[in-house]
Specification:
This protein is an alpha/beta fold and 193 residues long. It has helices at residues 17-32, 45-56, 67-71, 88-97, 109-123, 141-152, 173-179; strands at residues 4-8, 36-39, 61-66, 81-85, 101-104, 131-134, 164-167. Strand 1, helix 1 and strand 2 (36-39) form a beta-alpha-beta unit. The structure holds adenosine monophosphate.
Length: 193
């Protein structure tokens, strides 16, 4: 049963309309399935579109944002549930704390950093939930290729491929969460190569 998902998404307003369409579709999908959305709280870019869509479809959404971003008024104005943190790392900790899954939409360095951190924590058995890479039109192909390179060159193990799942369409994301391989704390035993 999926009650809550964390969505990593970008702050840029300049990306192609297809990326906004996907964020909107994901917001609707979550709201229509009574899945609460946790996000970075931004009022711009894909973050804003996701939140607008959740609210428009009467879903639940919570923003988690460092205080310094609130001070420059980066927060989404219509989202009522907010947690303000001292630091970026505290924000990342809370983003993954009580969630049922992580979904990474296409994004910039902030999204990539969040995604790589949670993949690393899962490798170490410190985060156990599904991580879905939304590979819209092959956006994440270079990163997935990089992971293959890591495995090929023995910086990671083949078992580590099971840490993340790839979804190519928004409508496949919830199925990918449900079908994600189980992962447990014993992952620490094969974290090292
Ligand atoms: P990126 O994928 O690089 O856009 O990273 C998203 C991250 O950047 C999130 O942690 C955002 O909170 C943060 N961020 C950067 N610029 C903004 C902005 N103008 N408004 C809100 N969040 C932003």
């Amino acid at each position: 049963m999926i009650n809550k998902v964390t969505v990593y998404c970008a702050s840029s307003d300049k990306v192609a309309p297809k990326y906004f369409d996907a964020a909107e579709a994901l917001g609707k999908l979550c709201a229509n399935n009574d899945i609460e959305v946790i996000f970075g709280g931004g009022g711009k870019g894909l973050m804003a579109k996701l939140a607008d869509s959740v609210l428009q479809h009467e879903g639940q959404i919570t923003g988690i944002m460092p205080k310094f971003m609130k001070e420059v008024e980066w927060q989404h104005k219509e989202v009522k549930n907010f947690i303000f943190t001292e630091t970026m790392s505290e924000r990342k900790t809370l983003l993954i704390k009580d969630t049922d899954a992580i979904i990474a939409l296409p994004g910039g360095c902030g999204t990539l950093e969040e995604l790589l951190e949670v993949i690393t924590l899962k490798r170490l058995g410190k985060f156990l939930k599904p991580i879905i890479v939304f590979n819209q039109d092959g956006f994440y192909d270079p990163l997935l290729k990089m992971f293959e390179n890591c495995i090929q060159e023995s910086f990671m193990r083949p078992e580590h491929r099971q840490i993340w799942s790839v979804a190519n369409k928004v409508e496949d994301i919830l199925i990918s969460i449900e079908n994600a391989p189980l992962w447990d704390q014993n992952a620490i035993n094969f974290a090292a190569v």
